[in-house]
């Protein structure tokens, strides 16, 4: 080993030693006589020796690492006494004066942290202005938090002084602080001469709202477009303002296009007020520009009970018109989020009635539950509800339940309860994503399932259908037979990764990678194909996940949510765990494609491609398995 390598090893060993010495100081009691604890002196001596060696081998070290290691002092010193803090500051000053420039950043960070404390808790007898003078005079690479402390008059005065000299960073930081503080006139006057793209956001919003300057939609559009075209932004307020400008100056269609693009984002924050505004505006636009949902059913009202009641789940900001068939119509809905509404009507006299439900636009009816009163419903038409997720009809007199769509498959339907009716057959071939089924207490003789079914939870009590195909599906998906289900049980179950590998082939996955993962398509496609082939073979077997009992699942492109004792990061999980464990891990769709948004459910290729491109160093696993013939 060369002397340079020996020196680097010794330096890193000193860093580790200093950390092990200084870390316990945060929890150990202070000296009763206000003396300096020996551990602090020893730890600082280690850092000094590290700096001395690193300075001699400066060409072999990344100076940013040297600076980072010294800056960790701010963490170790947060609970020391005044005397010990002053001692550490004196040592840092000594090192700075000796020419160890990497100490400047640590010095600035420590003093900035101290300035953030309440005056009574500070351990140096300095005024705010003296702190700022020391921090800004130590030649640090950055201000280390001063830009977040403009509420402090001493800091703000320093930024004003630097901004008056035309230094961009200080002008922009000061102007954005004024804007966030609602001092709009000061914000506009500070930022108006800047030409950069980040300033364009603030100037655009000020022209849009008329904050600190007269409202001007044309200038607002110019600035906000410049910002959104260059900066990859998920700033909901900018998107909302720009869309509103388009509706005023250009067209409602252009407003809708920019909003719906933002609403597609997997990281959409539904609680954000601007997201809610965008949702509502899109609903208003779609009401007059798209086919509406339609549901028709027939009921028989008897003299001993003149009430009819059912519930419907609908998308936010939408409404339903229900014609009860006796000349009465009611309107329901316009909620600010997806929710269930109870629909109830009392008839004046018994008889047979035809009820129709019409929505404000397409795919907003997401659930239907007719289970309140027995033996009323005798026919139902659902062909025009492509966004239906959950269907429950219990204790009625249906002899036919047609789930064959008129135009497209029912891609969103995940759960069906049709218990205690008069059904002799049930066709689910056009419901490829169904996971829950309860068709108990029906004389069912024929049950058609979709190819590659996701069916995992089934109740089939008192039925005569051949169960062999369902037995096989349940075994593959680790599903089960159960007793009767309730409407609340009809939720999407998290399927295992092995299931998605079984449902697709390499050509489909390759097409998805080419469209959505360009870097991997250009550089690592061969490795992805080889890995896919191996995993496709392994997916034919039922794989066991050792973390099953701890509630873990894999959220693709997010994190592995589990007990703290097991893994958290998806990439690390996929790289370090065996492939059989990966395949047996449940995955969750985090893209949140709601039916009313007009998008199909997530395809298997999404999960499979995401798994492949995140399996770093897959050759380690490949060599465990013989080549597939």
Keywords:
single chain, 629 residues, alpha/beta, eight-stranded mixed beta sheet, five-stranded antiparallel beta sheet, 24 helices, 18 strands, 14% strand
Would you mind describing this structure in some detail?
By secondary structure, the protein is an alpha/beta fold. 42% of the residues lie in helices and 14% in strands. An 8-stranded mixed beta sheet has the order 5-2-7-9-10-12-14-15, with no helix packed on it. Helix 13 (236-249) runs antiparallel to helix 14 (252-263) and helix 14 crosses helix 15. The chain is globular. The relative contact order is 0.05.
List the helices and strands and how they pair.
Elements: H1 3-22, H2 38-56, H3 63-71, H4 73-76, H5 82-97, H6 103-116, H7 128-136, H8 153-163, H9 168-180, H10 184-191, H11 197-209, H12 217-230, H13 236-249, H14 252-263, H15 273-287, E1 294-301, E2 307-314, E3 319-323, E4 329-333, E5 339-346, E6 351-359, E7 365-370, E8 377-384, E9 390-393, E10 415-417, E11 425-427, E12 436-438, E13 446-448, E14 457-459, H16 468-476, E15 480-481, H17 497-502, H18 506-516, H19 518-523, H20 525-538, E16 553-555, E17 560-561, H21 570-576, H22 579-583, E18 587-588, H23 604-614, H24 619-622
Parallel strand pairs: 7-9, 9-10, 10-12, 11-13, 12-14, 14-15, 16-18
Antiparallel strand pairs: 1-6, 1-8, 2-5, 2-7, 3-4, 3-6, 16-17
